[in-house]
Amino acid sequence: MKTPSLNYKKANIKPVWCPGCGDYAVFSALQKSFGELELKPEETVIVSGIGCSGRVSHYFNTYSLHGTHGRAVPTATGVKTVRPDLTVLCVGGDGDGLSIGGGHIAPAARKNIDITYLLLDNSIYGLTKGQVSPTTPETYTTRTTPYGTLEENIEALPIFLAYDISFVARVNALNMKQMVSVITAAIRHKGMSIVYIMSPCVTYPAMPWNSLKEGWEEIPEDHPRDDKMKSLELAYCKSPLYTGIFYDVERPTIGERLDQAKERGLKKNSKEGDLLTVETILKDFY
């Protein structure tokens, strides 16, 4: 692994997560991944949502936008649409990404927009003092749900696979080596990629660190990453819980489809077989 050669970390803005928060590990993994990919800070954009994980965008010397609750994915989509030359990442938590923002994932998946979404799950609304999130265990009690959560929790991975996101992976914050490798692969992937990261909260331990120490295994190397049904089997498996890349397929991005449609349109309306240009179109008006 290459040592990061570019300064992605903002020296004047220090992370303020609680000591022991899993987001520190994700921050470190992302920095190492940026270094391995040799991304230029001025050509990289991080869009983040609300919550503890939303602070990630503050701590990198890249372009960044800390958006409104649940709107990180559509904002990142807008950035990539206007500037397809940039590397665009989206960072959010389980509340931000699977609750109010959950409805934005399917349209982005259909478009196969070329962004990387890091969804950090701690199974709690940590920043707003510990309310239940879509992934909080049913038996976990909080001040607002003293008898446990009253709703079914969400199985996120099968949802991502059902949406046919072209790259789906899961890692946990204890496995730094795998986390760096998977994030790097996700950023390299051409199309929408989502990395579901188990990142415990120490203040409201709905997902305690100990829960990541046992019962987890890396996906077997012979797993067919283009087989959605096999990927769903691994995603639903509880013993063991698998980490790694579940699904990885290539298909056109929305940008490529738009370019193809534009070319077909220009050919259809061209004169004497020459492609239309803005200049030739304007000549008809003067």
Sheet having the most strands:
8 strands, mixed
What's the level 1 CATH class of the largest domain?
A: Alpha Beta
* Helix vs. strand class: alpha/beta
Distance between the termini: 59 Å
CATH superfamily of the largest domain: Thiamin diphosphate (ThDP)-binding fold, Pyr/PP domains
CATH fold name of the largest domain, please? Rossmann fold
The overall average pLDDT, rounded, is: 90
Q: Domain count, please report it.
A: 2
Structural description of this entry:
The protein is of the alpha/beta class and 286 residues long. The chain folds into two domains: 23-249, Rossmann fold, CATH 3.40.50.970; 252-286, no CATH class. The protein has nine helices and eight strands. The protein has helices at 23-37, 72-82, 94-100, 105-111, 156-162, 176-188, 228-236, 254-268, 278-283, and strands at 44-48, 63-66, 87-93, 116-121, 167-172, 193-198, 216-218, 241-248. It is globular, with a radius of gyration of 21 Å.
